[in-house]
Amino acid sequence: EAKVSSTPGRTRAINFFTLHEGTPQKHSMKPSIIFADLPGYGYAKISKSISAEWPTFIEPYLNEREQLALCICLVDSNIPPQESDTMLIHAMQQMQRPYLVVATKSDKLGGNQLTKSLNALKKAHGVDHILPVSSKTEKGVKGLWPEIVNVIRD
Fold first, then answer.
1. Long-range contacts for 118-127 (Cβ within 8 Å, ≥24 apart)?
2. Closest CA to 131 of 120, 116, 147
3. Which of 18, 32, 105, 121 is the most buried (most CB within 10 A)?
4. C-beta neighbour count of 34 within 10 angstroms
5. Cβ atoms of residues 102 and 144 within 8 Å
6. β-strand 99-104 against 71-76: which pairing, if any?
7. Per-residue pLDDT reduced to its tens digit, 53-91
8. Rounded to an integer, what distance in angstroms lies between the CA atom of residue 99 and that of residue 78?
9. What pTM does this model have?
């Protein structure tokens, strides 16, 4: 189980989380999926000297990691499109890495507001598909899993 901070931008290193098939008592020793949580470029409230070091390990990880099957770019649906998100998405395209853009906090916006936000995000980031999700209400999570599994099985 991961500890979640109420303050955005707390991740300062690459954190790994593994999922194993089976019950906790009888799961396979080899993980089914390994998630890597990378620091966010955009909203980190930390010193510039710390965040300036991130490209030295984040960019090589994204560019050179052969086992990397899918990058999930989390964007906040509750704020205007961020240039740092666009830069990350364009980097994924340049590196020819499979990626999925997921709009978080979709529970905070009503139907029309969410539609407008998703359209603005698509236009700003130059993507056709953004999946809205909410960790609070779990809205969209059921739609996210098949997209992850489809990439991993290919």
1. 118/77, 120/80, 120/81, 121/75, 121/77, 121/81, 123/81, 124/81, 124/86, 125/75, 125/81, 125/85, 125/86, 125/89, 125/101, 126/86, 126/89, 126/90, 127/89, 127/101
2. 147
3. 121
4. 12
5. yes
6. parallel
7. 666 777 887 888 888 888 888 999 999 998 888 988 998
8. 21
9. 0.77
